[in-house]
């Protein structure tokens, strides 16, 4: 289980960065400025981008939390859906993934 310590640290660091990013996106979204029509369009586009970033970040954060639970349960690297071992290369690229490549493609 010692080899999971590094992964755990990586996940915790990433978790903190995501938490900060989500907070700053939420703060930006909360800033509603009065604007004329053309500015409102730009504002609207910015808002969509920010919301997309927020959604992606929250999704990744949820995966990280799930991966951390799996480390604690001694199930890290096991696919949530099919129960098979997730390929090491995939875990290296996406340490927070909880699905094997086949299940993630579905
Ligand atoms: Zn699977």
Structure, briefly:
By secondary structure, the chain is mainly α.
Number of strands: 0
Largest sheet: none
Q: Would you identify the regions where 5 or more consecutive residues have pLDDT less than 50?
A: none
Number of continuous helical runs: 4
Summarize the helix and strand pattern as letters.
HHHH
| Mean pLDDT figure | 91
**What Rg is obtained from the alpha carbons, in whole angstroms?**
18 Å
User: Which ligands does the model contain, each kind named once?
Assistant: zinc ion
Portion of residues in beta strands equals under 5%
Q: Termini, distance in Å?
A: 30 Å
Work out the helicity level: over 70%
Class of secondary structure makeup: mainly alpha
Overall outline: elongated
